[in-house]
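Structure first, sequence second, as always.
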């Protein structure tokens, strides 16, 4: 690692670090999450290159910053406050801005693995005296801040001392996000990972942008645009929110509404989403009260016409949801583990709610209404009604009310977006085009661990798409189908010598033959 600072610079350190990490793993030293470790170490070293004096660009600086990254309880670790301050000094530096988001995913176990990697690095030092000195420094830095998270990281640079006292806080983070993202730029980000569904992307992008405006300008009393997404299983509803969760710097919670009941003592209750939001915000109530809640399977709380017994209970639950979305003070049960259960008072006025569901049967209500109004034309009786899809132009709030949603609740879901099921052509694009597609992930896995190229033929892609289409669960079936196809290669490749490429043919995708292995001669 010393060579990194002796011979590298801010442009060349990343490939050097990547090579060292791969070499480490080749020596039977696996990481729990190699991508997180690489991103985390990259931002630590990048910060040192960018903000530290030349004489401080040493391995000891890396160890000190790692030691200051340990989380203890609900307190922010010193390193993340320092990084936050650096991002404020360099407002246009996307590397620093994106690095701050790592705090949400890096855990103490990841930091332990970073120290394990550094120990391995130090053991490559030929000078025995230097080697044992550095190993001692690793142990000191590893436990120093973990034992007492309140300690400040002592830095020789004047600007970074006592940085936690000048923490810009939650609102400053929101300001930084708005400087970087407009609705069209939010949609551009979503386009990298989700194919099609432009109407839903536009609706969500505008809602998220409006949410940040409301956070920063409460005096303007801007209208809150809660969103409802309607579409079949596997069309991308949840994936859109997962990508929003990665992008924004407010807490986001994804909650499945199936099984939610009106009475807390009979099962899961709606308040658990708010509790999770509070915990996701590291118990910062200000951040939690400005977060985003995604309720999946939202249609499950609407009583079906043949289930009159559940009508009263579901109506009660809808009434409770109305209170939450209107912006009232909600009592949230909180079991703190000490035996003294408490109740959190949370204001939901500034929480953005995004609800989603398949709403099976809603299309019949829309088509019937269109036919009644004559919008299908004079020859509507000759048209196959199943060929007419619902969309943003023909879906209305009254259709949700006729489906069984309380009028007041339907009125709180201002933006209605319709997502369409994926045909085979769209499924093929989902499989191959997104930046983080299922195939791309498996290709990275083969390349990262064994430097092997994974290739799928066109015939194999077609076979996979046909298999997934028969499952009738949309893109959700892709991972299971591809994993079954790759199971043989995933098992055998690590024990094979000289494999350069694994090719999945149509026959391999059909499970009629094994994958083709290209061996280095």
């Amino acid at each position: 690692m010393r060579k990194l600072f002796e011979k590298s610079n801010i442009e060349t350190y990343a490939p050097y670090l990547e090579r060292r990490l791969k070499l480490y793993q080749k020596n039977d030293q696996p990481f729990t999450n190699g991508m997180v470790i690489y991103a985390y170490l990259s931002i630590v070293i990048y910060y040192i290159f960018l903000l530290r004096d030349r004489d401080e660009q040493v391995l000891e600086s890396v160890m000190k910053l790692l030691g200051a990254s340990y989380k203890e309880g609900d307190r922010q670790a010193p390193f993340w406050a320092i990084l936050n301050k650096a991002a404020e000094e360099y407002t246009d530096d996307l590397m620093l801005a994106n690095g701050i988001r790592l705090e949400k995913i890096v855990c103490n176990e990841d930091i332990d693995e970073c120290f394990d990697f550094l120990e391995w690095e130090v053991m490559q030092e030929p000078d025995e005296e230097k080697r044992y000195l550095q190993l001692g420094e690793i142990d000191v830095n590893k436990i120093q801040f973990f034992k007492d998270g309140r300690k400040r990281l002592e830095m020789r640079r004047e600007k970074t001392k006592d940085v936690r006292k000048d923490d810009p806080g939650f609102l400053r983070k929101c300001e930084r996000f708005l400087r970087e993202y407009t609705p069209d730029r939010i949609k551009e980000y979503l386009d990298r990972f989700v194919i099609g569904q432009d109407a839903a992307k536009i609706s969500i992008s505008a809602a998220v942008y409006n949410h940040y405006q409301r956070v920063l300008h409460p005096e303007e009393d801007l209208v809150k645009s809660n969103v409802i997404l309607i579409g079949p299983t596997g069309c991308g509803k949840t994936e859109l929110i997962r990508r929003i969760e990665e992008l924004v710097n407010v807490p986001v919670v994804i909650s499945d509404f199936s099984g939610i009941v009106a009475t807390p003592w009979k099962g899961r209750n709606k308040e658990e989403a708010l509790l999770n939001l509070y915990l996701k915000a590291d118990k910062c109530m200000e951040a939690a009260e400005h977060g985003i809640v995604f309720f999946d399977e939202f249609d499950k709380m609407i009583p079906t016409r043949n289930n009159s017994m559940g009508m009263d209970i579901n109506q009660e639950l809808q009434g409770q949801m109305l209170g939450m979305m209107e912006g009232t003070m909600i009592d949230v049960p909180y079991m703190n583990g000490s035996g003294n259960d408490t109740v959190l008072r949370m204001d939901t006025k500034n929480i953005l709610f995004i609800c989603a569901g398949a709403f099976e049967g809603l299309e019949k209500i829309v088509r019937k209404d269109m036919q009644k109004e004559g919008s299908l034309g004079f020859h509507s009786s000759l048209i196959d009604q199943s060929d007419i899809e619902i969309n943003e132009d023909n879906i209305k709030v009254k259709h949700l009310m006729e489906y069984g949603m309380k009028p007041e609740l339907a009125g709180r879901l201002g933006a209605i977006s319709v997502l369409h099921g994926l045909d085979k052509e769209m499924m093929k694009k989902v499989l191959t085009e997104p930046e983080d597609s299922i195939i791309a992930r498996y290709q990275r896995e083969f390349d990262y661990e064994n430097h092997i190229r994974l290739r799928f033929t066109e015939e194999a892609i077609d076979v996979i798409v046909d298999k997934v289409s028969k499952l009738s669960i949309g893109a959700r079936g892709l991972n299971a189908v591809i994993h079954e196809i790759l199971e043989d290669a995933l098992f055998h490749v690590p024990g094979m010598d000289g494999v350069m490429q694994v090719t999945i043919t149509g026959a391999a995708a059909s499970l009629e033959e094994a994958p083709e292995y290209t061996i280095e001669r």
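Margin note: Confidence is low (pLDDT under 50) at residues 147-168, 262-267, 305-312.
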